[in-house]
Amino acid sequence: MSSLFVPEGYRPLLDELRTEAAIGKIKHHFQQNLAFELNLNRVTAPLFVLSGTGVNDDLNGIEKPVSFAIRDIDGSHAEVVHSLAKWKRQKLANLRSKPGEGIYTDMNAIRPDEECLDNIHSIYVDQWDWEKVILPSERSLDYLRETVRRIYYAIRRTERYISQDYPEIIPFLPEEITFIHAEDLYRQYPTLSSKERENAAAAEFGAVFIIGIGGVLPGTTEPHDGRAPDYDDWSTITKPGYQGLNGDILVYNPVLKRSYELSSMGIRVDQETLMRQLTLRHELHRLSLPWHQSLMAGKLPLSIGGGIGQSRLCMLFLQKAHIGEIQASIWPPEMAERCLQHNIPLL
């Protein structure tokens, strides 16, 4: 199923060639700022990993990865990555990274099970994946919030930078990001869906970080949004009545007139929370996988990490109506035709 929102009277601020040049500038500037803020070094990432190792990200647990056999390795299958949430932690262990040190990389993924292709969802995903080693004392909401602020500062600096090169682009992000727990958001808007609650929060504050995504909301049978049980820590009790050491960075997109997710991130599971979350999801069988065994054996460092959408960030800064104006992907024919009719040039 696909869906398209067409902004009234939409005209791209930049033509295709200027857009391509601006994309390169944004990516270069933002990753330098991100690396500075979080003390990250760039590493090279895989496009695919071996099946059956537990390394691939299961996202919400229902998406099927693109997989293929390797002719020269008998009996082996590989999977195109969904993201690198768990691979990065193994990489930090291999590098013997110390607390305060981290990595970032370009992650390219294919997600053919994307349920609704629209202005911001594509089967092709490109993001900066990052991960950083932390101390036991830093597994806290305070540390999570400070990390979010540093990422948001890098986002705002990049917005100001690109607007200086292209005067047509007027910065609109607020100076600070607002923190709100998913449980508080639910209590404030109990009759709205999770996406409607996000829209309301983004419209009110301009930029928000919604804390605690993955655990079932009190008084309901559903979480605010889905999370796999084996990377983000969404079940830790951080204070009475609240759960979660993870969340999403959302901003208000003035072109699409809705909330707009830029990043999913969080403090990662330790042995205790891995066991708790696998138990809650009835997925203890994952403990037999090599990655999970490494974590339970204490061979992986404590860490915080996440992903930041590259095309999404560029789309936001350049005030585009469709992510297909930033990346080359495949779209339903009827969507491509409507875009052509409404001045939305897909690459």
Can you offer a commentary on this structure?
The protein is of the alpha+beta class. It has one domain: BirA Bifunctional Protein, domain 2, CATH 3.30.930. It is built from nine helices and 13 strands. Strands 1-5-6-13-12-11-8-7 form an eight-stranded mixed β-sheet. Strands 2-4-3 form a three-stranded antiparallel β-sheet, with no helix packed on it. It has a two-stranded antiparallel sheet with strand order 9-10. The longest helix has 25 residues, at 141-165. The protein is globular.
Integer tally of domains: 1
Mean pLDDT: 90
| The level-1 CATH class | Alpha Beta
What structural category arises from helix and sheet content?
A: alpha+beta
Share of helix, binned: 25-40%
* Spans where pLDDT lies below 50 across 5 or more residues: none
What do we call the CATH homologous superfamily? Bira Bifunctional Protein, Domain 2
Binned strand content? 15-25%
This entry's quaternary arrangement is single chain
How many beta strands in the DSSP annotation?
13
Q: What is the CA–CA distance across the termini?
A: 21 Å
Major beta sheet summary: 8 strands, mixed
Count, helices: 9
What is CATH's topology name? BirA Bifunctional Protein, domain 2
General shape:
globular
Please tell me how large the radius of gyration is.
Answer: 20 Å
Biggest sheet strand line-up: 1-5-6-13-12-11-8-7
Order of helices and strands: HEEEEHEEHEHHEEEEEHHEHH
Give keywords.
347 residues, alpha+beta, BirA Bifunctional Protein, domain 2, 8-stranded mixed beta sheet, 3-stranded antiparallel beta sheet, 9 helices
